[in-house]
Amino acid sequence: MKRIIPLLLLVIILCGCSVTSTYSGSFFAMDTYMTITVCGNNPEKAVKKAEARVKKLDEAFSAHNKKSGVYKLNKNGSAELEPDAVELLSLALNNYRITDGAFNPAMLSVTELWGFPDKNYKVPSENEIKSAHKNVKPEKITVKNNTVKLNNKGMKIDFGAIAKGYTSDKLIDTLKKEGIKSALVNLGGNVAVLGGKPDGSDWAVAVENPDKKGSYLATLKIRDKSVITSGGYERYFKKNGKVYHHILNPKTGHPAESSLKSVTIVGKNGTYCDALSTALFVMGKEKALRFWAENGLDFDVILYTENGGLFVTEGVSDIINSDFDYKVVKRSDYE
Ligand code: ADP
Ligand code: MG
Questions:
Q1: Which domain holds residue 115?
Q2: pLDDT for 234
Q3: Within 6 Å (CB) of ligand 1, which residues are found?
């Protein structure tokens, strides 16, 4: 059994922050370590506001905190949720639809069978999976005002694959309201940046190499963007020599076997980046690239395959720096 702290992206802050005042705050929330770095006037005040916002969102989205509306919803099948949780549910259901179910926010009863939420890992029987899986029907979820009903016995919702992306979007909003123009938010390896560095240059964000902790597949130069990675190497256990990781294929109820090691999404909207990093990991390389080419959403993708292939979509080719051989994928490849 092994638990690797999800530090999928190591952030290189080649900061020109010294020209203005900088403050960095770190804390634990949403089951991961978070760091918020702000450059500007009174950065400490802005970081404290952002931290308070994270704590509130964590309480609203948690499936395990007894005070959370999501916990009550999963327990009772119906509950009033915080407005942020209602908004996140609607975004999650939209991602479920656009990814043809590869992203599924209602899989918690199946994830629990594998012991991922409480780290009490086990391989469930096929019968257990089948009986939990048949209740997973996000179409049956209804929302009226802020009251959510699951309408299917045993179905439980889980924002684990989208909450950090949504939270990073909200934090960037909070920092903007504080008058901040330059910041970097790292939520356990899910990164969002506001503006560029105070010296006017871009932020440099590194994408971790799943094969070698502490080394990178690439670094990316970004501003006003999120960079979010999903990978099977991040949380997993081994049983009888087989690896079982925490990203499930909603069609089977088993860990996704997609021949990918990691999927990184780069885009303006952190919520989509987070949901899509999980969904494209489930889809596998060919389906993921076709989805990127045909879907019409503005984002880019970095795929790292089981056999060490690195594929980047065309928007990344201008901002990437990598020692690996990589193939640039173009939309015209899919016409
Ligand atoms: P992480 O948040 O650990 O960096 P992800 O964003 O990929 O990685 O989220 C994985 C988490 O999402 C799992 O731990 C589980 O709670 C949940 N999950 C697993 N498979 C799916 C899926 N296919 N769709 C939506 N959520 C999922
Ligand atoms: Mg995700």
A1: 61-150
A2: 83
A3: 6, 103-105, 107, 111, 116, 158, 160-161, 164, 230, 234-235, 246-248, 250, 274, 277-278, 282
Indicate whether 308 belongs to any domain. Answer: no
pLDDT-above-70 percentage for the chain: 94
CATH (domain of 97): 1.10.3980.10
Domain-located, residue 100: yes
Which atom in ligand 1 lies closest to the alpha carbon of residue 250? 23
Q: CA-to-CA distance for 215 and 276, rounded, in angstroms?
A: 24
Q: What is the pLDDT of residues 233-268, one digit of tens each?
A: 889 999 999 999 999 999 999 999 989 999 999 999
Model pLDDT for residues 193-221, shown as the tens digit of each residue: 999 998 999 999 999 999 998 999 999 99
Question: 167 falls in which pLDDT band (50, 70, 90)?
Answer: very high
CB contact at 8 A, 217 and 304: yes
Alpha carbon of 309 to ligand 2 centroid (Å): 21
Round to whole Å and give the CA distance between 202 and 311.
23
* Nearest CA, atom 26, ligand 1: 161
Question: Helix 285-295 and helix 270-283: axis angle, to 10°?
Answer: 140
Task: Give the residue whose CA is nearest to atom 14 of ligand 1.
Answer: 246
Tokens 């439980």 belong to which residue? 156
pTM: 0.94
Return all residues near 52 (Cβ < 8 A) that are at least 6 apart: none
The predicted-structure confidence for 60-93, as pLDDT tens digits, reads as follows 999 999 999 999 999 999 999 999 999 999 999 9
Q: Looking at this protein, which amino acid is placed at residue 148?
A: V
**How many whole angstroms separate alpha carbon 174 and alpha carbon 172?**
5
Structural domains counted in the chain: 1
Q: Is residue 198 part of a domain?
A: no
What tokens appear for 28 in the block? Answer: 């634990």
Would residue 306 count as lying in a domain?
no
- The DSSP-derived string for 51-98 is HHHHHHHHHHH-SS-TTSHHHHHHHHSEEEPPHHHHHHHHHHHHHHHH
Q: At 89, phi and psi to the nearest 5?
A: -60, -45
